[in-house]
Amino acid sequence: MKKIIFVLLITCSFAGCGFQSRKQELDEREKRLAGREQAVLLKEKELRLLEDSLKRNLVPQDSSGLLPVAGLPLPDSLAGAWEVSMLCTKTNCQGFAVGDTRKETWLFNKRDEAVGVSAMQGEKLIRVYIGSFNGSGFKLTVPPNTADSSASSMTVDLKIDNINKLSGERIITQADGCNAVFKIDATRSAGTKK
Predict the structure, then answer these.
(1) pLDDT tens digits, one per residue of 24-47
(2) Main-chain dihedrals φ then ψ at residue 115, nearest 5 degrees
(3) Whole-prediction pTM value?
(4) Could you tell me if residue 72 is inside a domain?
(5) Please, which residues have CB within 8 angstroms of residue 83's CB and are 6 or more apart in sequence?
(6) Are residues 140 and 49 in the same domain?
(7) Residue 8 domain boundaries
(8) pLDDT tens track for 128-140
(9) Coil, strand or helix: which one is 5?
């Protein structure tokens, strides 16, 4: 009887050791899956924002009833990640001050004849710009949020200084009509320099 109890105790102790390693493996697998799930959710959100903005801007007409001129396709040499520094140079809005700085990473993507730009802070998507490439630069806007009539609008004009540098300005116009103007300097991310 003592032998049976001894064998059962040894078996239980070995089973407990295996249980801990399996639990640790499962915990690590769960962390990896949670990371993948966050990446998928971020991509889905980005795609939803781009799809909504493309639907709203697909057939815009100006007051003359003419369709805007389509842009050129984004060249491969300009696609990818850019480190963007913005400096407020002029404002009459509360909440902004001349000298304010912003740093973001912008991911330029081909979207047929449109250009999509995902503005990131770290791993977080903060906004999506849609616009066009004209061969020497970009005109971008943040699509208006039709659910929020008090939302501000953003426009970006960028020119190509060279294959690794862009410059221009971003203008934020708030619902009350005030403006904040930011000077933009963008350099290609170190890992994607041409």
Answers:
(1) 888 888 888 888 888 777 777 777
(2) -115, 130
(3) 0.61
(4) no
(5) 103, 105, 186, 187, 188, 189
(6) no
(7) 1-60
(8) 999 888 888 999 9
(9) helix
